[in-house]
Amino acid sequence: MNWYEDMNLWSGFSEVLFTPERARAAADAVATSPLLAFAPASRVLDQCCGTGFFTAPLARRGYQVTGVDLHPELLERAAAACADAGATASLVRADVREYGAPEAYDVVVNMYTSFGYFDDHEDNMRVLHNAHRSLAPGGQLLVDLLSKETYASWVGPPKIVDVPGGMVVMRDTILDDWTRYRTDWTLVRGDTAAHTSLTCYVYSAAELRDMFAEAGFGKIECFGNLDGGPYDANATRLIIRGSKGSG
Ligand SMILES: C[S@@+](CC[C@H](N)C(=O)[O-])C[C@H]1O[C@@H](n2cnc3c(N)ncnc32)[C@H](O)[C@@H]1O
């Protein structure tokens, strides 16, 4: 089994990945980010929506949102998040390498480093191709991730993150001359320790620009945070946006 197919990874470490603080930050970003302000009633596809941290506030804002994820347990949490927000979204269990609906969306988002998971480069390209074919002419894809440049600014010794009743030790290892990285997580609680790891591509802005262009996107722009700040030495994320030409 590939790591991203392992529900134990997502549920075991959900206290680090899917925290109330992240939910609040995502809701704030949807309320204030110029990059997440779309035309009223836009049809939005949220690739790898997880527990719905972006899906729910986007739906609450009035967009017609479809969230796609591999794991039913996470989609159930996304449905609950939408219900809590008083919003509805369509939630689909599918693999982002396969899911697409020709010209059915005005916007595709892929948030919080949910891209670059597949060992085969062509599989990662398929995710971009699926986004492109799912967009109506003039539509846009927005990908938010930890890039090579932003990762390089903080990767270092192992970090310890407190979680209720325990802690998680997180260690990052750069692989293949900065092509990919592995993150090892050990959750320690009382006398037990659970270990898991993931391996992901880490892209520079230039590499992702080339991939967006190869998938057919134009007007490619990079930002350093969801406020729309420049992608420079102060960038905390890479937000890359591309448009599908209108013909
Ligand atoms: C880091 S989480 C981010 C989730 C969400 N975007 C957020 O902001 O919280 C990555 C998500 O990708 C999903 N995922 C991993 N592989 C996938 C695949 N092949 N197809 C669809 N979803 C996938 C996982 O289930 C998980 O929910």
What's the gist of this structure?
GO terms for molecular function: methyltransferase activity. By secondary structure, the chain is α/β, with parallel strands linked by helices.
Structural topology:
Layout: H1 7-12, H2 14-17, H3 20-32, E1 43-47, H4 55-60, E2 64-69, H5 72-84, E3 90-93, E4 105-110, H6 121-134, E5 135-145, H7 148-152, E6 159-163, E7 166-175, E8 180-189, E9 192-201, H8 205-214, E10 217-223, E11 238-244
Parallel strand pairs: 1-2, 1-4, 2-3, 4-5
Antiparallel strand pairs: 5-11, 6-7, 7-8, 8-9, 10-11
The chain binds S-adenosylmethionine.
Explain the overall architecture.
- One of its GO terms (molecular function) is methyltransferase activity.
- It is a single chain.
- With 247 residues, this protein is α/β, with parallel strands linked by helices.
- It has 2 domains: 3-146 and 203-244, Rossmann fold (3-Layer(aba) Sandwich); 151-199.
- The chain is 29% helix and 33% strand.
- The protein contains 8 helices and 11 strands.
- The strands form 2 sheets. Strands 3-2-1-4-5-11-10 form a 7-stranded mixed sheet, sandwiched between helices. A 4-stranded antiparallel sheet has the order 6-7-8-9, with no helix packed on it.
- 35% of the residues are buried.
- S-adenosylmethionine is lined by residues 4, 10, 17, 48-50, 53-54, 69-71, 74, 95-97, 111-114, 117.
- Residues 4, 10, 17, 48-50, 53-54, 69-71, 74, 95-97, 111-114, 117 line the site of S-adenosylmethionine.
